[in-house]
User: Which sequence fits this backbone?
């Protein structure tokens, strides 16, 4: 059995690169995905996940994360947890629980404390600066405060054929205190079945939840669709249904991988990126075009695009 990993966004490529080395040496899908997501959570310049994550309306960092074992269908998740490092590890620990496997707010924090997880102030000076800049723009320019919702979602396949899905995010920028999106919600932000495959989503959680999109992708793969067909079908149908019923659809982007290591990605926005690594292949970042006529196209990121990305995330926060 060959191994593989797929993840939302460029920010995941370093994590899956390192985790793939472990998979190549026989690591489990669970250990690999936890390692990869922790690398994203720990990097302060990735401002939508973990340390340095985007704060809520009160300038507090509330984090959501989830973990699903595709062999047993066990799930662990946390929502709105504050001041704890690596919520993905807390979610994985919760997946071992028969009951009470999804905890939020103070309950999640009490569980993390009792189980020895590291308490850390996750709000950085840079995140505070972003908050102040957006608040100023919202008041003076009438811009939406709710821009910024880049969840890291991953699927991992190991050499034994086991699969795991996991997510981690700080959620919608300047969200209301206590808001939880799709990321830690089973079937919406993630779903995984080792007998079929796994999927994960990123975008506007309030709209992604309306279609249980990750479960739908796995269901379509189980019915015989390729990962790419399943991803495109799920995004196209949900986008069209939301547009018909509500007049518009928010951002919908997904990645998926089946238990053969074949992958797919789909999006209704331009510029969505994702990262892939598979047995015998170098890690690769892809950039998508907006889906047209139910089909998403993507190509490897150019060196110019990759350089611009590094420059952008390292740029200081400036005020007009």
Assistant:
């Amino acid at each position: 059995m060959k191994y593989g990993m797929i993840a939302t966004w460029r920010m995941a490529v370093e994590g899956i690169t390192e985790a793939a080395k472990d998979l190549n040496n026989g690591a489990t899908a669970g250990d690999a995905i936890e390692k990869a997501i922790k690398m994203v959570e720990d990097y302060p310049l990735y401002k939508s996940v973990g340390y340095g994550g985007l704060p809520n309306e009160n300038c507090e960092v509330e984090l959501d994360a989830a973990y699903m074992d595709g062999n047993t269908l066990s799930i662990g998740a946390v929502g709105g947890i504050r001041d704890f490092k690596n919520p993905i590890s807390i979610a994985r620990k919760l997946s071992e629980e028969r009951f009470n496997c999804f905890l939020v707010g103070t309950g999640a924090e009490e569980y993390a404390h009792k189980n020895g997880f590291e308490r850390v102030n996750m709000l950085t000076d840079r995140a505070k600066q972003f908050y102040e800049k957006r608040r100023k723009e919202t008041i003076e320019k009438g811009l939406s405060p709710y821009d910024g919702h880049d969840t890291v979602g991953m699927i991992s396949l190991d050499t034994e054929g086991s699969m795991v899905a996991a997510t981690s995010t700080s959620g919608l920028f300047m969200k209301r205190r206590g808001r939880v999106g799709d990321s830690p919600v089973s079937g919406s932000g993630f779903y995984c079945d080792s007998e079929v495959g796994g999927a994960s989503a990123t975008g506007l959680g309030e709209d992604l939840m309306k279609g249980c999109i990750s479960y739908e992708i796995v269901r379509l793969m189980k019915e015989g669709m390729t990962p790419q067909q399943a991803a495109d079908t799920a995004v196209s149908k949900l986008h069209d249904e939301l547009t018909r019923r509500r007049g518009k659809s928010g951002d919908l982007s997904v990645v998926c991988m089946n238990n053969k290591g074949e992958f797919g990605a789909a999006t209704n926005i331009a510029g969505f990126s994702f990262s892939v690594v598979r047995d015998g292949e170098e890690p690769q970042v892809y950039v998508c075009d907006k889906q047209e006529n139910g089909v998403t196209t993507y190509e490897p990121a150019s060196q110019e695009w990759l350089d611009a990305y590094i420059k952008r995330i390292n740029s200081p926060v400036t005020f007009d």
The mean pLDDT is 95. Residues 4-314 form a domain with the Glutamine Phosphoribosylpyrophosphate, subunit 1, domain 1 fold (CATH 3.60.20.30). The CA atoms of residues 66 and 77 lie 4 Å apart.
